[in-house]
Amino acid sequence: MKKIITFIGAGNMTRSLVAGLIQDSTDMQIRVSDPDVEQLATIYQYSSNIEGFTDNVLAIEGVDIVVLAVKPQIFQRVCESISNSVQEQKLLIISIAAGVTLASMREWLGDEISTVRCMPNTPALVQAGATGLFASPAVSDEQRSLAEMVMRSVGITIWLEDEAKLDAVTAVSGSGPAYFFLFMEAMQTAAKELGLDEQQARLLVLQTALGSAKLALESDDDVAILRQKVTSKGGTTAAALAVLTEKQLPEMVAQAMSAAKERARELAQG
Ligand SMILES: NC(=O)c1ccc[n+]([C@@H]2O[C@H](COP(=O)([O-])OP(=O)(O)OC[C@H]3O[C@@H](n4cnc5c(N)ncnc54)[C@H](OP(=O)(O)O)[C@@H]3O)[C@@H](O)[C@H]2O)c1
């Protein structure tokens, strides 16, 4: 039978996930709930079969999956308002809210709920995301597959065997886009100092970032080997890498990611 999925919150992430599910031609009936009818209208562009609701309790009546896609600040309020219905229907809950733990969700939704906690990242908005997933013990194999299918519609997914590892995922792929943006920003500034104009600098830097990631994903070599292959002794790349190594770029990256993981842990603990 056709599964029914409700997204609560008609914002950026819901738009991407709905677009991804429709692109994947998944056989699901999609509902979206948001108190703002104008927000809801932004979702209807993807399919005329999407059902819109302004009441979360009505929106989850008779469904199989609920995706909680509201900001962490209002998450508790939304959970408490739907908890009776979630418990009665034994629904699968998928949460994409950053830093909201399973313990908190159990407190607000009930002990026995089937929950998959996800940590997606912003490239999900262009269907190139990376998501870490963790399932509560009550989640069945079928529900795991369903959760994976939903999140795979906006990129790659990896399952974690331990909820605490979501803090590491936050430090790697959650915050990761910003590290690459900073590096690209610095490269663009340097490119202009070397004489290129704004547009030339932007295009060369962004295409190089995209091409390098594509090459690494499609290659059998790992990134250290790929780096060695483009670095000939005494050449231009070697001159640049010598500066980055001398300035301790790898140590800086390790420290930065460790700080992100620690902050994720603190935020999850409230
Ligand atoms: N965007 C990302 O790349 C990203 C990455 C990782 C994780 N996340 C997580 O994904 C979640 C959603 O993020 P987002 O960027 O999609 O947020 P968003 O664009 O702000 O979308 C949230 C939507 O929920 C609506 N809303 C507010 N109260 C509601 C209620 N009581 N019931 C139903 N809907 C309600 C909001 O309406 P108003 O605007 O009127 O308040 C808004 O339309 C967040 O928890 C965030 O931490 C996002």
TrEMBL record:
GO terms for cellular component: cytoplasm. Its EC number is 1.5.1.2. NADPH binds at N56. Residues 5-99 form the Pyrroline-5-carboxylate reductase catalytic N-terminal domain. Keywords: Amino-acid biosynthesis, Cytoplasm, NADP, Oxidoreductase, Proline biosynthesis. It catalyses: L-proline + NADP(+) = (S)-1-pyrroline-5-carboxylate + NADPH + 2 H(+); L-proline + NAD(+) = (S)-1-pyrroline-5-carboxylate + NADH + 2 H(+). Residues 163-267 form the Pyrroline-5-carboxylate reductase dimerisation domain. It is found in: Cytoplasm. It is an enzyme of class 1 (oxidoreductase). Pathway: Amino-acid biosynthesis; L-proline biosynthesis; L-proline from L-glutamate 5-semialdehyde: step 1/1. NADP(+) binds at I8, G9, A10, G11, N12, M13, A69, V70, K71, P72. Its main location: cytoplasm. One of its GO terms (molecular function) is pyrroline-5-carboxylate reductase activity. Pfam families: F420_oxidored, P5CR_dimer. It comes from the Bacteria. GO terms for biological process: L-proline biosynthetic process. NCBIfam families: proC. HAMAP family: P5C_reductase. Belongs to the pyrroline-5-carboxylate reductase family. Catalyzes the reduction of 1-pyrroline-5-carboxylate (PCA) to L-proline. This is Pyrroline-5-carboxylate reductase.
